[in-house]
Every structure is written in structure tokens, then in C-alpha cells.
Amino acid sequence: MTLPLYIDQHVNAAITDGLRRRGIDVLTVREDGFDRRPDADILARATELGRVVFTQDVDFILLADEWLAAGRSFSGVVFAHQLKTTIGQAITDLEIVCRVLATPEAANQLIRLPL
């Protein structure tokens, strides 16, 4: 079983498609009807679903830090800067993260790609 991901709206669809071809469990915010919701709602929804957010939105870095400082738990965030991570590298690194980490290990973590 792999770590399930909740893919933010700013992520290129090729990343989502590549992860699915590799057998990674992904759900996009668009598929879940959360694509027009604030980042805090997205992080809360991912936590409710037991999924780790994958995003390329730098605002999630600040949000994760705010939640940690406030003692608020979340299921985890994986961040990749759009200009510093290729689509292929994002797919490869996300597959590694998803196959190595269990959901409890990802909780309250901010993981930055590339690895």
C-alpha cells in the first residue's frame, strides 16, 4: 500500500497521470470539488481523508508552519517548486515518498522536492 496523495489545483496534470500509471493512489482537489477552496480548507480536507497534500503553491509552506506553531495536526505536505523540479523528477520523487512513508510517518511533515 502506498501513501495516498491529495493533489493541489496548481499541479500539472502530467504529474497526476504519471503517478497513476505507477500505481500511486491520487485524488485531485478538482475531482473532490475543492479546487476553489482556500488552502486551509484543502489541508483540512486532506487530513480528514488521510491523504498527504502535494502542491507547488509556496503558500502551503507558510500554512504548514502556521499549523505546526499552533499545535494543529495535518496529514502532511509535499512541496515541489515549479521552476526547480521537472515533471519527471516530481513523479519519480513522489513515487519514492509514497512507497517509503506510511501515513502516520508523514503526519505534520513538510517534505520538499527534489529529494
> By helix and strand content, what is the structural category?
alpha/beta
Percent of residues in β-strands? 15-25%
Rg measurement, Å: 13 Å
pLDDT < 50 runs, ≥5 residues: none
What is the architecture at the second tier of CATH? 3-Layer(aba) Sandwich
Binned, the helix content reads 40-55%
Number of helices: 5
Can you give a write-up of this model?
- Helices cover 43% and strands 16% of the residues.
- Helix 1 (13-21) packs across helix 4 (87-100).
- The protein has a 5-stranded parallel β-sheet with strand order 2-1-3-4-5, sandwiched between helices.
- Strand 1 (5-7), helix 1 (13-21) and strand 2 (26-28) form a beta-alpha-beta unit.
- The protein has 115 residues and is of the alpha/beta class.
- The longest helix is centred in the C-terminal third of the chain and has 14 residues, at 87-100.
- It has one domain (5-113): 3-Layer(aba) Sandwich (Rossmann fold).
- The chain is globular.
- The model has no long low-confidence stretch (mean pLDDT 96).
- It has 5 helices and 5 strands.
Spell out the blueprint of helices and strands.
Elements: E1 5-7, H1 13-21, E2 26-28, H2 39-49, E3 52-55, H3 59-69, E4 77-80, H4 87-100, H5 103-106, E5 110-113
Parallel strand pairs: 1-2, 1-3, 3-4, 4-5
